[in-house]
Hints:
- This protein is an all-alpha fold.
- Helices cover 82% and strands 0% of the residues.
- It is built from 17 helices and no strands.
- Helix 1 (2-54) packs across helix 7.
- The protein starts with a helix and ends in a 9-residue tail after the last helix.
Amino acid sequence: MNLLKGSAVALVLRVISALISFVVAASITRNLGTDQAGLYFYATSLVVLFVSICGLGLNNTVLKYVSIFHNQKNNNMLNGVVNKSIIWSASFSFVFIAIVYVFLLLFPQSLGEDKLYLYFFLFTVPSLTIIALIAHAIQAKGNVAISMIMAGLIQPLSFLLINLFVAPQEITSLAQNYLLSVLFTLFISIIYWLRQAHFNLSLNFDSKILLASCSSLLVFQVFQQFNTVIGQLFLGVWGSNTDVALFTVSIKVATLTSFIMFAVNRVVAPKFASLYADNDLAGLRAAVTQSKRIMLLATFPLIAVLLIFPEFVLALFGEEYKTSAPILRVLALIQFFAVWVGSVSYLLIMTGQEKAHRNNVIISSVVASVVGCVIVPYYPLWGAVATSGLCVILTCYLSSRVVTKKLGINMFNLFK
Length: 416
């Protein structure tokens, strides 16, 4: 019942967050046109990739160890892992951004002539990295609702409000508004975390353990995030800005199905870790089965709408987007497959199988990239669909096999 209640709360918040992001994307596509919208979607795809790099794989490390230390009521170690993770990630992110900044100065034509807007997006990376770490720490302590508000609600809502008061006329002013919304979210996140009753400045956590845990998770996190934006990135190289806009809108709408999985995962991920730590495999199996049923039950209505009325949904972004209806149908079915397989990624990470899942993500990424390099230059939009879909399907299949072998859980079976 606790899982069902927690999932319901997380789902409601995720729906609200998705609706706000939906409105933000629609307002951008309608007010700035497909070309400028394509620049925005491409820039934010780069930000997603850069944040995953600068996070050093520490998000899920924090989620795992904070969950364990919170159950053990070891606040000194809990704060130690969070504080040390923030210091590491923040330091690396500033160095990384400096390197990218210098690269853009030395090679000004690498990303087009007018790239002032890119600098504003670039400067959001350190802040977004810290926000993600704090949100995962809050989640691990059982405050799923607050975690989701910090990670996925404050920034898009503040971005939307800023855009309403300071209406952007082109991509640079939009990028400035985006930066302001991220800085505001960082401020709120830090204030909340500092006001926690048991916060302290401890760094009492073994750096070797932290490094060992995050080393495999870093590769996984970067490649996983790369897989989520691989279509946009490939279209940015071989397609037009309009192609990027059409594809990104379609995949944003299709991944509305994945927010159900995301919402449930925010609740079950710490539970997976604690059950496995207690060697309660029966309880772990039951939690996996229950979470899958919740996700599938909530997904069916949305999938039906996307398959039957794709033109209606896409028209909300502008009439020119209705031509992407076939693409939306295919992407929605791919996302439904991911929901059917279930919380395979979090399950492997929370049970010490990070390396196996990392290898599966890398294999999927490499295979999809090869396919993308071959077909995207000739068939940009459908090539991006194939490349993105291949990443999802391969990762789910390979990782589910590891779960079956290591934990004895069949991720394709809904009943046990």
